[in-house]
Amino acid sequence: MNRHCHNCGTEWTIDGQPGRSDVCPGCNEDLRACLNCVFHDRGVAYQCRERRAEPVTEKNRSNFCEYFDFAQRDWSGSIGANKRMEEAKGTFNKLFGD
């Protein structure tokens, strides 16, 4: 389990947490963002399991949250979402004759 960019999967190899202005070297997305946080959970209120945190509107943008902790995860698990998206595009193209 490693720390990866939520957008492209580029691994964060530097020790410690990313700063507010740090971006992914692979895709230029902000790294200190809710989508990279261990507390991010789409199934709870404000999509954050840390109840003391202030609500953040843009989950992919850098913010000032004091509770940010870069999530360690297996990036290969994210491939399933891309596969579903490709299947949906294929179905759409079949329906509309592309």
Helix and strand pattern: H
**Mean of the pLDDT scores?**
87
Report, as a whole number of angstroms, the end-to-end distance: 40 Å
Q: Per DSSP, what share of the residues sits in E-state strands of 2 or more residues?
A: under 5%
Q: Which blocks of ≥5 consecutive residues have pLDDT under 50? A: none
**Individual helix count:** 1
> Which class do the helix and strand fractions yield?
mainly alpha
Number of domains: 1
DSSP strand tally:
0
Q: Rg to the nearest angstrom?
A: 16 Å
- Biggest sheet details: none
Morphology: globular
Give the % helix: 10-25%
Question: Looking at the chains present, what oligomeric state does this protein adopt?
Answer: single chain
Could you list some keywords that capture this structure?
98 residues, mainly alpha, 1 helix, 0% strand
Could you give the topology of this structure?
Blueprint: H1 79-95
Could you explain how this protein is built, in words?
This protein has one helix and no strands. With about 100 residues, it is mostly helical. Helix content is about 15%, strand content about 0%. The protein has one domain (about 1-98). It starts with about 80 loop residues before the first helix and ends with a helix.
Short description:
The protein is 17% helix and 0% strand. The protein is mostly helical. It has one domain.
